[in-house]
Amino acid sequence: MAGSAIRSKVFSVFALVLAGLAGILAEDATIQDGPLVNGDFEAVPTGGFSDDVLREGGATIPGWKSNGTVELVSVRQRQGPMILIIPGGAHAVRLGNDAEISQELKVEKGSLYSVTFSAARTCAPLESLSVSVPPAASTVDLQTVYSDQGWGSYAWAFEAQQGDVSLVLKNPGMEEDPTCGPIIDDVAIKKMFTPPRPKENAVLNGDFEEGPWLFKNKSLGVLLPTNLDEDATPLPGWIVESNRAVRFVDSDHFTVPEGKRAIELVSGKEGIISQMVETTPRKQYMLTFSVGQAGDSCKEPLALMAFAGDQARSFHYMADSNSSFELAGLNFTAKAERTRIAFYSVYYNTRIDHSSSLCGPVLDGVRVWPTSGSIRFAPLGFGFGPFGAALVVVLIWVLKMS
Ligand SMILES: [Ca+2]
């Protein structure tokens, strides 16, 4: 009797430990940053890849659920006279009219996530893609082709309302040819981190170091389409308030003024990023930033328009063999407790080597700080940041003393 009691105790303790372990594992099972399960559509489906076969409903794409005319497409596959564009590897997925693919994700409730995916058009000139994690949803315009490769990577963000969510990519179009529709590839996710507001700078994420997932082997950057929601943005702090995209670029593939990431303003006046910064009314401020070239053979002239409150000015980047960027600044007096700062490219630039690839000036290191009530170090100091400004103050003091 005693033995069986001990055995049952040991068993229940063992069961508890197991349950605890399972709980810890379940807790840890939230999705990791990076590609989704079969996010590149290269996993071989049951029965192998079979070209030219439409998979109506119940298609078996490993890791994904599908609905409607969803087709796995392969490199060198043709659509009439055209060879289909496959953004990465040898396979991708094509969504016919009203067709969708989805994947269940375990996320952290209340956290912000960004989704990166690559997309290419096939036949229609007005293709778009609906991206959603219900109830959050957005339609990404694939009309503009930003590179000569015929495809682009895009980012979209959502706030997780619950732990189990479903990411849905859907073709909302109704084309005459039901096999037409966008090609999707390389789907990845990243949990976003909103950097703290630096003490001496009113701009959040002004160095653009926090942003969506970037593929190491992809050299086209990530397009940030229209997004007016400052709480659910793949570029924390910033919104894209225009109908065309700006490009998030990294130092692995582009020339970046500061750190590892920056923004390339690729859509002329139609690609506007902005942020509302906290200011004190009637106080004087300075907006400073770096403007440069991305090292992607962008045809000059390169210039951007900067806005701070009621002030606006254009800044040209002059090619310089010593530096890929220059520092620029704009003084303004705050009129309210929040002031809008915004940037767009003055020109519609394309690359020297590929006239169908859009490019533009690079923006980085955006800072706003008060200048009133202190020595006007701005013209001297802004090139050196707050530390340089302090140095200028010390220098003036030393000069006064001598
Ligand atoms: Ca940066």
From TrEMBL:
Pfam families recorded: DUF642 (PF04862)
Transmembrane segments annotated in the record for this chain: 377-399
Gene Ontology CC: plasma membrane
Keyword list, A-Z: Cell wall, Glycoprotein, Membrane, Secreted, Signal, Transmembrane, Transmembrane helix
InterPro entries per the UniProt record, alphabetical: DGR2-like_dom, Galactose-bd-like_sf, Pectin_Meth_Modulator
Gene3D superfamilies (UniProt xref): Galactose-binding domain-like
Domain DUF642: start-end pairs: 35-190, 203-368
Compartments in which it is found: Secreted, Cell wall
Keyword Magnesium on entry: no
Superkingdom in the source lineage: Eukaryota
Major localization class: secreted
Endpoints of the signal sequence: 1-26
Protein name in the entry: DUF642 domain-containing protein
Organism listed in the record: Nepenthes gracilis
